[in-house]
Specification:
Number of helices: 4
Helix content: 55-70%
GO cellular component, one term: cytosolic large ribosomal subunit
CATH architecture of one domain: Orthogonal Bundle
CATH class of one domain: Mainly Alpha
GO molecular function, one term: structural constituent of ribosome
InterPro entries: Ribosomal_protein_uL29, Ribosomal_uL29, Ribosomal_uL29_CS, Ribosomal_uL29_sf
Distance between the termini: 77 Å
Strand content: under 5%
Family: Belongs to the universal ribosomal protein uL29 family.
Organism: Subtercola boreus
């Protein structure tokens, strides 16, 4: 892809869920509006950006339509494990505990 956003490649757009695609579409349309406004007031520096944003919008619409038609597969939602079910993190205190136990064991052995 020669022109367009490097972050909105079709391969990357395939991994987005529908809600994220809608958000990217909203951002791109907002950017296009701002670029057109800058163009009308003579403040636009990069005219090629207009073309790139239009292509990004078209690319997103294409992905959405292909998903509707069943041409592209919708990515499976990734389930995030809640923090309570995640493995407990070891803290410095937890790491120090075995060392303290070993020291206590040594002192009790010396006392015998």
């Amino acid at each position: 892809m020669a022109i367009g956003s490097k972050e909105l490649t079709p391969v990357e757009l395939d991994t987005f869920e529908d809600s994220r695609l809608a958000e990217e579409l909203r951002k791109a349309k907002e950017e296009l509006f701002n670029l057109r406004f800058q163009s009308a007031t003579g403040q636009l520096e990069s005219h090629g950006r207009l073309r790139a944003v239009k292509r990004d919008i078209a690319r997103i619409y294409t992905i959405v339509r292909e998903r509707e038609l069943g041409i592209r597969a919708t990515p499976a939602p990734v389930e995030v494990a809640p923090a309570a079910e995640a493995a407990p993190k070891k803290t410095k205190k937890a790491k120090a505990a075995p060392a303290e136990e070993a020291a206590v064991a040594e002192t009790t052995e010396e006392a015998k």
